[in-house]
Amino acid sequence: AQSVTQLDSHVSVSEGTPVLLRxxxxxxxxxxxxxxxxxxxxxxxxxxxxxxxxxLVKGINGFEAEFKKSETxxxxxxxxxxxxxxxxxxxxxxxMEYGNKLVFGAGxxxxxxx
Amino acid sequence: xxxVTQTPRYLIKTRGQQVTLSCSPISGHRSVSWYQQTPGxxxxxxxxxxxxxxxxxxxxxGRFSGRQFSNSRSEMNVSTLELGDSxxxxxxxxxxxxxxxxxxxxxxxxVL
Lengths: 114, 112
Fold this sequence. Notes:
The complex is a heterodimer. In chain A, strands 2, 5, 6, 10, 11 and 12 form a six-stranded mixed β-sheet that branches. A four-stranded antiparallel β-sheet of chain A has the order 3-9-8-7, with no helix packed on it. Chain A has no helices and twelve strands. Chain A starts with a strand and ends with a strand. Chain A is mainly β. Chain A has strands at residues 3-6, 10-14, 19-21, 23-26, 32-38, 44-50, 56-58, 64-68, 73-78, 87-95, 101-104, 108-113. By secondary structure, chain B is mainly beta. Helix content of chain B is 0%, strand content 54%. In chain B, the strands form two sheets. In chain B, strands 2, 4, 5, 6, 9, 10 and 11 form a seven-stranded mixed β-sheet that branches. A four-stranded antiparallel β-sheet of chain B has the order 1-3-8-7, with no helix packed on it. Chain B is globular. Chains A and B meet through strand 5, strand 6 and strand 11 of A and strand 4, strand 5, strand 9 and strand 10 of B.
């Protein structure tokens, strides 16, 4: 079965330092993977999507993610954290066998210190 | 284009009551999905509708139901509310790229 595991429930960084949010996936085929962000009391915003066209995917707000099949990973990175990046981030896999369904990781809360 | 809208944004109900939540997808999107978000269980898939037909269903009891109208707007209904139904209910729509879902702000339901 397809699933994602986010390796850290909380990550804390200082403003201006790099961000790394880790995600491993499990899939019997090449999956479609996403990162979404949720700010407090808000809905989910799509950051980026991987669909096998390119292993390095650029998203909004300076985020990018690299798909590594050998490591079954899809880690999210940003070179320099901003205070506004503080939020919860979800790694997500899409299941299209019967209709459309997203399976979410447990989420990683990113804290950005000034 | 306007995003996904959900009404109401906040709702307080008591146990045993029923509730109906509404979702208007992005214009032109025909697929609407619903998710429940709770601190304990995270984000869980409820169901998906496409062209007024339920195409996929998650592992929730029959108290949770939904429907989609010809204009792609969708409603979900929860009957005989339980305390554990307190959650943020998120609606998402997708268009020609059916895998990519765009989420609304959610409806926060509190069951007392």
